[in-house]
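Input record (one chain):
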Amino acid sequence: MRRCFVVAVLTLLALAGAQASEPAHRVLFIGNSLTYVNDLPNAFASLAPDGARLDVDMIASAGASLADAMRNPLVTKALAEGGYTDVILQERGGDAFCPTACRQEGVSALSAMRSAKDAAHMVRAAGARVFYLGTWQSSRETNEALEFGERAIASASGAGYVEIAESRRKLMQAYPELAWTHADGQHPGYATTAMMALRTWRAMFGVTPTTVPCVAGEVHYHAPMPDGILHIDLSKKPRTCLVPLDAVRELAGDP
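The corresponding structure, as predicted from the sequence alone:
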C-alpha cells in the first residue's frame, strides 16, 4: 500500500513538473474593430487547455491600419519590451484587396504591403513569431482578390497566413443559422469571431481546438482600451460562448 502511495505521489510530481516545464506563450493581437468587436483575443485565450501557460494582450482601436500601428509608440514599445512569443497582425478589411489591375501593377504597390513588412520585421527582431490574420469580403470573386493580396503580403513579410475570407463564405452557406455578421452589417458576428479564434489557434499551435471559443466578461462592440494594452482576464463573468460545440471542427478548418 505504501509503495503504491509513493508511486502515485511521484507520478503527480512528474506531471506537475512536465506542466511547469512547458514553454509560456505571450500572445499579442494588433488590429482594429475587426479584432475587438466580440473580443477575438479573449475568445482565443479561452481555447487554452487547463494548465497551459498563456497570456494574451491586445492593442486595437477603431479604424486602425497596420501603418497606424507602426506610428504608435505604444505598439513599438510593446513589441520591443513585452516579451511576446507570438504576434497576430490584422489589417483593416479590404486594405489588402488586389484585383486584376493590382496584379498587373505588382502586389508590392499595395499600401498595406510596406506596413505589414515593417511590423513583421519588428516582431521578429523581438524574437517572436508573426501571423497575418485575414479579413473578408462578400462574394467569391472579391474574396479571391482579397486573399491574393493577403497571401502575397504574408509571404513577403515572412508571416504565417491565417485565411478567413472564402472559407467564411462557404461556412455561411453550410451554417446559415449562425451569427456571421454583426447587427451593424459590417463587423464580425459571433461565428466569424469564433472562426478567427479557432483558425489562429490552429495556425499557432498546429492542433485543432476541440472546445468552444467563449468570451469572459462583457462582449464589446466599442474598443475596450483604445489607448492602451488590454490584458485578457479569463476569470471575468459572465461567460459568453460564441458558437455551438458541433460547429467547432468545421470553423477551425479541421481537414
